[in-house]
Write a structure and sequence with these properties.
The complex is a heterodimer. Chain A is mainly alpha-helical. Helix content of chain A is 69%, strand content 8%. Chain A has one domain. Chain B is mainly alpha-helical. The interface between A and B is large, with 71 and 64 residues.
Chain lengths: 443, 346
């Protein structure tokens, strides 16, 4: 294996692992902030206990998210030196803005929140978690603007042998970034909703802390339901965005080989990548792909065969990850809708609670599948249409990358196991007991 | 002009990172030498607990700014120093996780594992950051295509290693003094005594490093060859650094812990800036041929990017300093034993 393939594997391993922790940080920070605001407004001690209980899980999750994020920033330099040199003028500045404008805020106030329960007034303490929530979501904005520039490069000129910034406003208002932000944030909030519902279901099934976890469940349900609807609706709009920005990704995610007018979508497809066709196409919805991509059932959709072979992404992986993401997205909508009808009699629906408990991993799978679609579907480009991934790698020895890749796999597996153990342990243990009301004795 | 402003900012960001995370790395390394029991250890963890995360972001900012303002330097430096940098990154992962995970399970074996991780993972970045910067000061073997022609072991040359030891000692003194500020009783007394002893080592190594710098690098050229107008302000940097080093000793003797810690901050910032000023206009000198060196001119971003990033930096860096100062003040008191009873304490 050469340095290119090893570097790609390493970056994939590092980002996938990092993104196991990011969505929960994005969503749980907001949910905890809402809990604490409710406590400040109502004085209901339950909400304070909720913020504290979920907050502890948040802190464990956050710790891994932070330390694994740092390696990503530096990997652009270590493994993708040619990329960094060629697009650093634009891409590097977006990462630097993320660090100075958002990440500092998040990392500084997370500690104030964690250790400040007795040092700050209730109101000031709630402000600190809001700062964390806003900063982490703002971080996502800048990272996604940077990623969107790789998906749909805008506002640049090729000058001095590299891509140079030409229009900063165009870069930050990239329409692709807006779509990607809504989509990623929705996914993160769905994941958080399912996580909190799943853990709550565990306790509700055991009839313990039922008031506490009933409230948690319903708050999480609202979050997951709202963003499941947004994700499905906006995900549909995303199709058109991909069609215009990256026609090869669109064709690959549908395993669509031959160019045709009023292109259908099939319910079941088995791609045959080697022979550039599909083994099976079943359940055609006439004109659906044309409609998705160009808002008209009559439109012509370009098939993979009309793109040069060296410009096509891996079809099967792109196709499968797209189907997994969409399938799970629809399932999330169904489950949250069922939850909505059962929300006031949760304890009477043990089967639904059990389903929700075992659904915790599903949004994680959907998120990773979504990123696989986004990143694998963009290949063979690292910056779509501007720079190929094969031109981006550092002039480093394969042996170096082999060693670091092995280290990533070993270290991240250990960390993942430790984090999973700690989160599961705390989640199962449940919240601290409610404070006993102090009754004054009058004799 | 813009490039030079960014060069200064680049140096300042690294200096601030070393100053802030330096005491965390120092405390982590000193843990087995200063802590006698579990309470001592927890006081040491809590002395850095509220700060380490925010401190580490200065590294991300310094890395991000290298990427944004000097992308070619970022590319060559980070790919060239691949193995050293990976070791630093993995160590920082273990350091952060050790601090956050140690207190989560009440089990001696669990805590011991993370204590070992903390110490190793604090020492290693301190050493390697010093090795890396010393090598940058003396130049590394990069060819005309910006390809690094050495390996990890070629970085471990005498001057590089001396730089590593210098950084470790600076951070150890810095960490011991921070602990002197944050602790009481016997632990405080041990921290003070150790800071005093380490100071002697630091003074000797600092003198050795400055002397070796004369022979191994060209850093002094900038101090000697410039016209008087520039020379006066920049010569204040090494002089100020030496003065700060002396003041550490004076304040330890007088029992002014905060002032001693600030003096130690002055040493770290001064030593970093001494090197950075000496480097200018190079960011990464090549020791194969000076013409291959990466400079502020040939490795910087476009003027538009530098301008936009300057606006961003001028808004956000002071903002960050303001709220981080507030956090330092909020947690400025000594860590006391009943602080350890709090649920979220480390």
């Amino acid at each position: 294996m050469d340095a290119l393939l090893l570097s790609r594997l390493q970056f994939a391993a590092a980002t996938f692992f990092h993104f196991l922790f990011v969505p929960l940080t994005l969503g749980l920070s907001v949910l905890i902030a809402i809990m604490e605001s409710k406590y400040v407004r109502t004085g209901d001690e339950d909400y304070r206990r909720m913020a504290r209980f979920w907050g502890k899980i948040f802190l464990i999750n956050f710790a891994i998210g932070v330390v694994t994020g740092i390696t990503l920033e530096f990997q652009f330099g270590t493994n993708w030196a040619q990329y960094s040199r060629y697009v650093g003028d634009i891409f590097g500045s977006l990462l630097a803005i993320e660090a100075t404008a958002a990440f500092f805020l998040e990392s500084t106030f997370i500690a104030v929140w964690a250790l400040g329960w007795n040092r700050l007034s209730a109101k000031a303490h709630a402000v600190t978690i809001w700062l964390v929530a806003i900063a982490s979501n703002l971080s996502a904005v800048w990272i996604l603007i940077a990623n969107s520039w790789m998906q749909r490069p805008v506002g640049y000129v090729i000058r001095n042998g590299r891509a140079e910034l030409d229009d900063f406003v165009a870069v930050v208002t990239n329409s692709y970034a807006i779509h990607q932000f809504v989509h990623t944030i929705s996914a993160a909030y769905i994941l958080t909703g399912f996580f909190v519902m799943g853990v709550s279901a565990y306790h509700l099934l055991r009839k313990q802390h039922t008031v506490f976890f009933g409230k948690s469940f319903r708050m999480a349900l609202n979050m997951a339901l709202i963003f499941s609807i947004i994700a499905v609706v906006q995900g549909h709009m995303n199709g058109a965005k991909v069609a215009s920005a990256q026609p090869t990704k669109l064709a690959a995610m549908e395993s669509f080989w031959e160019t045709r007018q009023s292109a259908p979508q099939y319910l079941l497809v088995i791609p045959d990548e080697k022979n550039q066709r599909n083994h099976l196409e079943w359940g055609a919805i006439p004109g659906a792909l044309s409609l998705l991509a160009y808002h008209s059932t009559e439109a012509t959709v370009k098939g993979l065969k009309d793109f040069p072979e060296e410009d096509r992404p891996p079809v099967t992986l792109t196709f499968v990850s797209f189907r997994i993401m969409v399938g799970l997205g629809v399932l999330f909508l169904v489950l949250t809708l069922i939850g909505w009808f059962k929300r006031n009699r949760l304890e009477e629906s043990p089967r639904f609670l059990r389903i929700m408990l075992y659904s915790i991993p599903l949004p994680y799978i959907a998120s990773e599948a979504g990123w696989t679609l986004a990143e694998v579907g963009r290949q063979p480009w690292v910056v779509y249409g501007v720079m190929r991934t094969s031109d981006a790698v550092s002039p480093i020895a394969a042996s170096q990358v082999m060693v670091s890749l092995a280290a990533f796999v070993v270290v991240y597996s250990l960390l993942g196991a430790a984090a999973f153990f700690l989160i599961a342990r705390h989640a199962r243990r449940g919240p601290e007991p409610a404070p006993v009301a102090i009754v004054e004795r009058r004799d | 002009m813009l490039e030079s402003i960014w060069f200064i900012l680049w140096g300042v960001l690294w200096a601030v990172y070393f100053m802030l995370d330096g005491f965390d790395l120092g405390i982590g390394t000193l843990m087995p030498f200063l802590a006698r029991n579990e309470t001592d250890k927890r006081i040491m963890y809590n002395a850095m607990g509220p700060f380490w995360n925010g401190n580490e972001v200065w590294l991300i900012a310094a890395g991000g700014v290298t990427f944004a303002a000097f992308p070619t330097t970022y590319a060559v430096m980070f790919s060239g120093l691949y193995t050293a940098l990976m070791l630093i990154l993995f160590a920082l992962i273990f350091r952060g996780v050790a601090i956050e995970f140690r207190g989560q399970v009440d089990h001696a074996g669990w805590r011991n594992v993370w204590d070992i991780c903390l110490t190793v993972a604090s020492f290693l970045p301190a050493l390697l950051l010093g090795v890396a910067f010393a090598n940058i000061f003396q130049g590394i073997p990069i060819d005309e295509a910006g390809i690094f022609r050495g390996n990890l072991f070629s970085l471990l040359n005498p001057y590089g290693l001396l730089g590593g030891v210098f950084f470790v000692l600076m951070f150890l003194v810095h960490g011991a003094l921070w602990l002197a500020v944050k602790s009481e009783g016997a632990l405080h007394a041990r921290a003070v005594a150790l800071a005093g002893r380490l100071w002697i080592g630091l003074a000797i190594i600092a003198a050795a490093f400055l002397t070796a710098t004369w022979f191994y690098t060209r850093l002094y050229d900038n101090y000697l060859q410039n016209p008087l107008f520039y020379m006066v302000p920049i010569v204040l940097i090494p002089l100020g650094t030496v003065a700060a080093l002396v003041m550490i000793r004076v304040y330890i003797a007088r029992g002014h812990w905060w002032r001693a810690w600030f003096s130690s901050s002055g040493v770290i910032v001064g030593a970093t800036l001494f090197g950075v000023v000496g480097l200018y206009p190079n960011l990464l000198p090549s020791n194969l041929n000076p013409a291959y060196s990466l400079t502020v001119q040939n490795s910087s971003s476009s003027p538009l990017t530098l301008k936009i990033m300057l606006v961003v930096a001028l808004i956000f860096v002071p903002t960050v300093i303001a709220y981080q100062s507030w956090v330092y003040r909020l947690f400025s008191g000594k860590v006391q034993e009943n602080d350890l009873l709090e649920e979220e304490a480390y």
